[in-house]
Amino acid sequence: MQYDHELCITEFQCLVLPLKQHMKRLHEIECYFQSRRQAAASHLPSVYRSFGHISSFGVRYFEESRELQATLAEIERDAESQRAQKCEELKELKTKYDTLMEQYTNMSCETETYVYNHRHGYTEPRHSRWCSRCLCKTQADALSIKIYEWPVSSNPQVAMATVFELKVPQAFSDWRDTSAYMISEVLGHQHRHAKEPYYLYTLDKHKGLSQMLSQSYSRRRIVLSSDVKPYNVTHRKNKRAIRHLTEDDVCLPNALQYAYLDISLRVLPKEAPTYSGDVPKLCRYHMPRRSNALDRFTYHPPSAPDGTPPNEVIAGLSDCPAHFSIEEYKAFGTMAFGSQIIYSNILAQLATSTIDFTKVETQCLILQTIQQVGLPSISGDVERVNHAVVVVESFGHAMLEQIDTALLRVSENLESWRALASFSLLARRTLSLTQTPDVRTRALDYLVKLRSVCFKWLKRLKTRAASSTDNEQRNELHSRATEMALLCTSTYDVECTDFNIILQQDSAVSVLLQSSIIIQENHKSVQSEHQDLYDSLLLSHLAMMYRAFEKLRTFVLHDSKGLCDAVRANWAAFDPSTASPSGWRSLEQPQHHWLAICSGTLLVHFNLLSAELLVNGLPLARLPSRFMQHKMYRPLFSKTTLEVMPTDEPGLEFSAQHLYHGYKLHFGMQGLDMLVVAVQGNSRLDLIPSRVFQDQLPHAFVADSIHWYDHASNEVVFRPRQSPWLADIDCWRLKHDILTKSWILVNGPNVLVSLISTSARNLSKIVLSMEEAQHIHVVLNTTTQTVDVNLPRLQLGFFVERNSDAIFSRQFRGMIIDSQQNIGTLTGLTSKLVLKKSPSERILLIPVPRKFGISSIKYAKTLSNDHITVAISKDDATKVYAYNLDEELGRITDSGNLESKLLISYLHALTSSCLPDALTKVTGTEAALQILQSAAVRSFDLLTYRNVELLERIATLSTTRSFYPAHLQVMQQVSWNKRLPALSQHPQFCVSVDQIFKHAAKMQIFFPANDVFAVIRDAQERLKSGTSIVDKS
Questions:
Q1: What does each C-alpha distance from 213 to 67, 166, 217, 218 come to in angstroms?
Q2: Cβ-based neighbour number of residue 152 at 10 Å
Q3: Residue ranges of the chain with per-residue pLDDT less than 70
C-alpha cells in the first residue's frame, strides 16, 4: 500500500458505459485508486524502475525475509568456494609456467641438416621445426585461464534486490505485471525516453543463478536485464600472460548492471510513462467516411471534457458535409458541447427538429455523448457530472415527452429507424438513472410502444425479403431486417434489476426471441451503412442476452408460450403439442443454455444465448456452417445466406427455397467436397471440385474457373470465377472426343495443348526462365494453325506460325525469342528473356515482382563460388520491364520509368564481380552506382511506395557498421553478407540512396498531404540504425 501503483485513471472519463451498474463499478474503482494513491508514500521509489534502491520494495522485503537472506548467504558461500578453486588453478598454472620456462632456459635449440641443392648435395644447418626448447616456450605462452566472475553485485542493496527477483513473491510479481499491462497496453501510456537494450542478459541467462528461478518466470512481464555483458561472455573471458596475473585479474567482480525490463515492450524504462491520448480516441464512435470532418464533435478527452466550443464550430463551416445544411451542421456541432448541458441540448433539438435524427451521424453522436461517462461527481455520487440532470424528475418527464412526440412523427416511416435507435437509448438512459417511480413507469411504457413500432417494421421487412426474387435486393432486405431486429432487442438492454419487469410485458419474450433468431441467422452477412456501428450494436445485443439469460431461462421454463411462438414464426411446421407434458426441458450443465423439445419425430434444440434453432441437430432455414464456411461457398454465393429445406434429391441433403440466378439448387457433402446441383429447365449442372484438374491443366484453368458438368451436352463448362452463373458467356469447355476417346479443352477454334505433351513441354522450356510450367498456356488455333504460348500472369504472349521455328512476340512486334540468351552483363540473373529483331537490335525482358523483399528477389552463391545466381520469384511477378541492349555504346537503356532504372541498378549490384562486364565495360557495382547517381534518377517529383522499398533494398546492400561495444564506441564492427561478393556491398550504395531520400524530402512542400514522406522518413531511420558508422570514402 505504501508504493504508488502509477496508474492514472483520468482517461476513464472517456469510457463508454451504457448502464448505471457500469458507472457504479467505475465509481468503486476510482474510490479505490484514490485511496491507494493517498496511502502511497511519495518518497518511495518506483516498483517498475528503481532497482537496488535502499528504499525499494525488493530491498525492504529482503531485509525482512529470512529465506532470501539464507539464499544470498548460500550464493556467497558457493561463490567463495569457486573463487578459491580459481585461485588454486591460477597457482598451479603459474607453477607450470615457471617449470616450462625453466626448461626453456636450461635447454639449447635443436638444429637439423637442410639440403638446399640436391644436385650437388649442398647442405646447411637450420633451426629445427620441432625444437624441444621452443616448444616449451610456445606451451608456456599458450597457457590461459578462464576468469571467474562473482555471481552478484558488490553493492549490497543491488545484491539483495537481485535475490528478491530470483524468488519474487508470486502475488507481487502478478500485481506488478498486471499494473504494467494496464499502464502500457490498456491505457496506452508511452515510455518516451525509454532505452531499448542493445544486449539482453536476463536472469534466466545467468549461469550461476538461473536454476533458482521458479517455473513461472517465463510468464513474467517485468524482469531484470543488463545492458552490459558479463565478463565471462566477452572476448576478455580468457586471460593469458600467466606470469603477470594476480588473483584480482582472474577473480572479477560482477559486471552486470541490472535494470527492470518490460519484456513485452523491450524497453528499460527510466521515468514514468506519459499520457498518449490513445484511450479517448479508442473510446469513440467514429463517423462514416463521408463525414470524417464531424469526428471531432465526438472527441471529449480529459483535457477538454466540454468538447468543441461553439466558436470553433462556426469557424469550421468549411468542413460541413455535402448532405448537411449549414444550420444543421451548426446545431450538430454544438449539441455535444458542455458536459453539464448535453442532455439539455438534445432535448432542445428534439423539440426544434433542426437535426435530422434519421442520419447515421446523429446516431453516432447520441451514442457517444449519452454513454461517455464524463467527469466524476464532485459530491461523490454514482451519477456523474454529465448525467446528473437525468436524475431530476421534471427533466425525465420532459425527455420522455419529447421522444414520445418524435416517435409519433416517424412511426409510419421505416426509413427513420435510426431515429428510433437514438430514442431507445435516451429512454433506457432515463430509466437507468432516474429514481422517480412515475418516470420509471413512463419510460417502461415508452419502450413497449417503441418496440411495437420496430417489430411491425421487422415483420414487414421479413415479408418483403421472402417474396423478393432479386438476390441483391433480398440480401439488402435481410441486412435491414437484422439491424431492425437489433433495434428491437435494444429495448430490453436495461439494468439487471429491470429484467423481470421487461420480460413480464405482453409478448416480450416472443418478440425478444423472434428478433434474436433473425440476428443469429443473418448477422454474418449484413452489409451495413456503418459497419463499425453495426458491430458495436451486435456486441451489445450479445452482452444483453448473456446478462438476461438466467431470468429469461426461468421465464421460459415456467411459461414456454413466448418461445413456442418465436419458433413457430420461423418454422411453420413446428408442433409442440406432440411433446411430453413437461414441454421444453433444459440440458445439464454446462449446456444448460440449450433447451430441447420434440416436434413430432423431430428433436428440436434452442440456444437461449445465441438464439440458434436446430432441428435434428441442423439449423433451420439456412445451410449449416460446414457448407457456408466451405471454400467454394463464397465464390458461388458471395455473402448470400440461402434459405433451404430438406431435399428428395438422391445423395443430397438440402435444396434452396428460392431460385438463385434462375437455378433450383440442391446441396450435399461428400468428404471434404461440397456437392451442388443446379437445375434450370432441362439443364442440369453438377459442380466439379477443382482438385480434379490439379496438375492436369494450367493453374489459371483450375483456380480462376468454376467447373460445371453439363449432363445435356456431356461436357465440363469452365465458367469464370467472377460470374459462375452466366450461361451465355464465351468460355472453355472440356469435351469428349469420340474418335480419339480422349477429353479436349476447347474454346471456339482454340484447343489447349496438354501440359504433359512433348510440344507443350518443349515450348514451355523456352520461357521457363520467366514463368512456371503450370502457368504457361499453350493453345493451338485450328483455323490459323498457329500455336500461342501465353504467360497470363506476366501479360506476355508469343506465337509460332506453321512451318516456322521462330517464336514471335505479340507485345513487341517483329521481335522473336533470341536463341542466344547471353547479354554480356547481369551474369547470374536467371529470370530474363532476350528478344531480337536483328543481331544488333535486341531487348531484355525482366519480370517485376509485387514486392522487392528477399523472398521476391533471391540470390545465392554458386557451388563453384564463381558468381552468384539471382532469381526473381515467379509467383510474385505481375509484369515485365523491357530494356534495349545497345551493344555499340555498351549500355542497357530503359523506358524512362524510375522504377525500371532502380530495378536494373539493383540487379547490376547483385550480379557484380571483380571483372568488368563484356557489354558495359564496367563492373556491376560501377554500373549500379552510375545509375543511382545519374540526373535521370534524381529527376522525379514524388517517389512511390515501391520506389522507396526498392531504394531501401539497394541501400541495405552496403555493409552494416556499428560500434563495439555499443556503449563504449571505441571499435568498429562490420557485418558482411556472406551470400554476396564484397563488391556488391559497396558503402556508396547507402550514401547514394540517402542522398535520393533527402532530395525526395524536399518535394514535400509540393505534396504536403502525401503519406509517402512518412514512409521515406521511416526508411531513413532504419538505414541510420543499421549503419551507425558510414564509410563515405
A1: 14, 5, 7, 10
A2: 24
A3: 1, 469, 572-573, 578-582, 620-621, 648, 728, 864-866, 966-968, 1026-1033
Pairing of strands 750-752, 742-747: antiparallel
* DSSP count for the chain of H helices, then E strands: 30, 37
Q: What is the DSSP letter of 820?
A: -
C-alpha cell recorded at residue 840 = 544488333
Is 474:527 a contact under the CB 8 Å cutoff?
Answer: no
The span from the CA of 150 to the CA of 252, in Å, is 6
The values of phi and psi at residue 158, to 5°, are -65, -40
Question: Contact 819/835 with Cβ under 8 angstroms?
Answer: no
Beta strands in 575-672 (DSSP E): 585-586, 594-599, 602-607, 613-615, 618-619, 644-646, 654-656, 664-670
Q: Are 450 and 427 in contact (CB under 8 A)?
A: yes
What is the distance between the alpha carbons of residues 885 and 846, in angstroms, rounded to a whole number? 13
446-501 pLDDT, tens digit per residue, is 999 999 999 999 999 988 887 776 778 888 999 999 999 999 999 999 999 999 99
Question: Quick one: pLDDT at residue 573?
Answer: 66
The Cα–Cα gap between 462 and 420 comes to: 19
Type and span of the H or E element at 547: helix 531-558
Of 1031, 928, 902, the residue nearest 984 (C-alpha) = 928
Contact 676, 665 (CB under 8 A): yes
- Residues with Cβ within 8 Å of 560's Cβ and at least 6 positions away in sequence, in order, are 576, 583, 584
For residues 572 and 565, the answer to whether their CB atoms sit within 8 Å is no
In the DSSP assignment, the letter for residue 218 is: G
Contact 722, 707 (CB under 8 A): no
| 117 Cβ contact partners less than 8 Å away, ≥ 6 residues apart | none
Cell numbers that stand for 117 in this block: 641443392
- Residue 582 corresponds to which cell in the numbers above? 413437461
Cα–Cα–Cα angle for 753, 756, 758, rounded to 5 degrees: 80
> In what helix (H) or strand (E) does residue 579 lie, and over which residues does it extend?
none
* CB-based burial label for 607 (10 Å; 0-12, 13-18, 19+): middle
d(CA 279, CA 191) in angstroms, rounded, equals: 16
Q: Cα-flanking dihedrals φ and ψ of residue 246, to 5°?
A: -115, 175
| Cα 574 to Cα 98: distance, rounded to the nearest angstrom | 103
Contacts of residue 38, defined as CB under 8 A and 6 or more positions apart, other chains included, come to none
Distance CA(867)–CA(910), nearest Å, equals 10
* pLDDT of 730: 84
Q: What contacts 1023, CB < 8 A, 6 or more positions away?
A: 952, 955, 956, 990, 993, 994
Kindly state the DSSP code that residue 880 receives in the 8-state scheme. Answer: E
pTM above 0.70, yes or no: no
pLDDT of residue 581: 67
CA separation (Å) from 429 to 376, 383, 398, 493, 986?
Answer: 17, 11, 14, 10, 69
